Amino acid sequence: MKILVVDDDAAVRACFGAACEMAGHQPVMVGTMAEALLALGEGDIDAVISDGSFPCYPNRVPDAWGHELLSEARDRRLP
């Protein structure tokens, strides 16, 4: 299973990515909403793990939060 791991903290991403790998999954790790949307656009993501409140400060998009990413994933019919 290909799992999109989204968090603005690199250490948190690494922990979740390692857990995904240990469970036999393939993590795709990104730190911004823009990167996450690009990954979702590729169409081969099976699930998303995200901090529900991560702000996307690197992209200077203060109104883009984790729950919006999860809403987008749901709209694309991801688990």
Give me a quick take on this structure.
This protein is of the alpha/beta class.
Outline the structure in words.
With 79 residues, the chain is α/β, with parallel strands linked by helices. The protein is 41% helix and 18% strand. The chain has three helices and three strands; from the N terminus they run βαβαβα. It is globular. The model has no long low-confidence stretch (mean pLDDT 80).
Contiguous uncertain segments of 5+ residues:
none
Identify the strand order in the major beta sheet. 2-1-3
End-to-end separation in angstroms reads 11 Å
Separate helix tally:
3
Proportion of β residues?
15-25%
Major sheet: size, sense and barrel closure? 3 strands, parallel
Question: What is the element string, with H for helices and E for strands?
Answer: EHEHEH
Number of strands: 3
Helix content: 40-55%
Query: Roughly how many Å is the radius of gyration?
Result: 12 Å
The residue-averaged pLDDT reads 80
- Backbone shape: globular
User: Which class of secondary structure composition applies to the elements?
Assistant: alpha/beta
